[in-house]
Amino acid sequence: MAKVAFIGWRGMVGSVLMDRMIAENDFSGFEAEFFTTSQVGQKGPDIGMDIPVLQDAYDIDKLSSADIIVTCQGSGHTKEVYPKLRNSGWKGYWIDAASALRMEEDSIIVLDPVNQDVIDNSLNSGIKNYIGGNCTVSLMLMAVGGLFQEGLIDWLSSMTYQAASGAGAKNMRELVSQMAVIGNEAKSLLDNPASTIQELDSTVLATMKGDTFPIDNFGTQLAGSVIPWIDTPLESGQTREEWKGYSETNKILQLKNPVPIDGICVRIGAMRCHCQALTIKLNKDIPVDEIEDIIKNANDWVKVVPNTKEDTLKHLTPAAVTGTLTV
């Protein structure tokens, strides 16, 4: 039975992965061992079976005993640990949610409902590194992957509305803290029917711009606002998040003729569940109902929502989709 090591299983991405694996009874198929950066020797998670105590996530000898390593710990940990593992002679499979190794030549970006053929060919050819893609790139391909697979897209522009979860657990907490501060400062005005909307608006704005407003993680206000900048700048004028749309999509699909993709990435005040608006140039005229059929038949998770106000408000919001498996 294969031995699988898990790192970073307590964070946002890791905890969602754990929940899905428990729901699917995945842990019955291998021997699991859990690693930590801060709780070595403590009890591991409840996965319905006995497991060893938590091991050190920086212990190269211990990690190298695993056949497969699954990590959601982040790029910092990957950059420190991965080279040491490979240099020690470890030849196992590295499965990583972080971006550090995505664009390496010996890595495959995995999105199995879209590129299962690429994954299968890579496994057969001896590739050992399988990396999760950028969240909005994966969302976009899950949504319109059928159009890519049919070779119908000339170019695509993506405008994203990205939730706080994409920035990590600390940022999610900070968003709620910002909401709480605004709510507390505005409560007396909300409770007073005689207060004016101008008073309320002025109080909210003053609170958001105050010196004590919590912005340590985002660097600015997100609650009551948006942040039209995600990740670091590139010489091209894009942010790295925007650059990933082109670079990762074409690597995931292994396209012989790359599809031009660009857009603007914006952080919004949703907790989880990213959204996107796509402008797509097709290379031939296709009836709308045929386009809908291609989209909804591409995988088991994508759904086409009727273009009505009622259906949109009921099904096409972060609050409606969060916690489901629906795109």
Which features would summarize this protein structure in a list?
327 residues; alpha/beta; Rossmann fold; Dihydrodipicolinate Reductase, domain 2; 2 domains; seven-stranded parallel β-sheet; three-stranded mixed β-sheet; 11 helices; 10 strands; 39% helix; globular
Describe this structure in words.
By secondary structure, this protein is α/β, with parallel strands linked by helices. It has two domains: 3-101, Rossmann fold; 134-327, 2-Layer Sandwich (Dihydrodipicolinate Reductase, domain 2), CATH 3.30.360.10. It has eleven helices and ten strands. The strands form two sheets. Strands 3-2-1-4-5-7-6 form a seven-stranded parallel beta sheet. Strands 9-8-10 form a three-stranded mixed beta sheet, with helices on one face. The mean pLDDT is 97.
Tell how many strands the DSSP assignment holds.
10
Shape: globular
Q: What gap, in angstroms, lies between the N and C termini?
A: 34 Å
Largest sheet: number of strands, sense, barrel closure? 7 strands, parallel
Radius of gyration: 22 Å
Write the H/E string, N to C.
Answer: EHEEHEHEEHEHEHHHEEHHH
**Domain module tally:** 2
Structural class: alpha/beta
Order of the strands making up the biggest sheet: 3-2-1-4-5-7-6
Proportion in helices = 25-40%
Low-confidence stretches: none
Q: Give the class-level CATH name of the largest domain.
A: Alpha Beta
Q: What is the number of helical segments per DSSP (H or I, 4+ residues)? A: 11
Instruction: Give the full name of the CATH homologous superfamily of the largest domain.
Output: Dihydrodipicolinate Reductase, domain 2
| pLDDT averaged residue by residue | 97
What is the CATH architecture assignment of the largest domain?
Answer: 2-Layer Sandwich
